[in-house]
Amino acid sequence: MQITYYGQSCFGITINGKHLVFDPFITANELAKDIKLEEIPADYILLSHGHQDHVADAEALAQRTGAKIISNYEIVSWYGKKGLDGHPMNHGGSWQFDFGKVKYVNAVHSSVLPDGTYGGNPGGFVVESTEGTFYFAGDTALTWDMKLIPMTCQALDFAILPLGDNFTMGYQDAVIASDFIACNNIIGCHYDTFGYIEIDHELARKAFSDQGKELSLLKIGESISI
Ligand code: NI
Ligand code: MN
Q1: What's the total number of domains in the chain?
Q2: How many whole angstroms from 37 Cα to the centroid of ligand 2?
């Protein structure tokens, strides 16, 4: 599995030759100004919730690539009215796609689309595939429901968790989340993009390493293989 970080909560993940893009927010992100949206491949666009810092570039990306949008029913319906292809889900449901199985799981947050349309309830995704299994938490507080993930899904190879505090859990709560999901290999997201969510990278890494866990804070544009 190849993972590329595009800033905020946006990741490109290639699984079994299919390109998944999570929460595209690039052209409006000053920190991602060197990333070219028009060069990013996409077969599927997974949207955790309707907020601007997660969906800003979804329409342009879907229009150029023809990618299918995977999200909750309300968000997929909103893009459907724009003529974009989608696969609607809701919490607790799974679907087998050609790259692997996706489960839409709970998040504690809010969700409204850029024009004020109700964006359903926010979620995260667990993706199980022959190349590995991971959890993309979206925007969420630390929540007891995370304990359901290791009870109901394959063991996680890694998880992408928000760390920036204020709008989501901070890194201290994310350490506890990593216990709840039984995963010691964490990739951070949702930090540094705005003043409210700036973090001290060394303190965040130390909070994880003190518990025998690893936190990766990827540079924007950096790719890793897992
Ligand atoms: Ni949000
Ligand atoms: Mn957000």
Answers
A1: 1
A2: 19
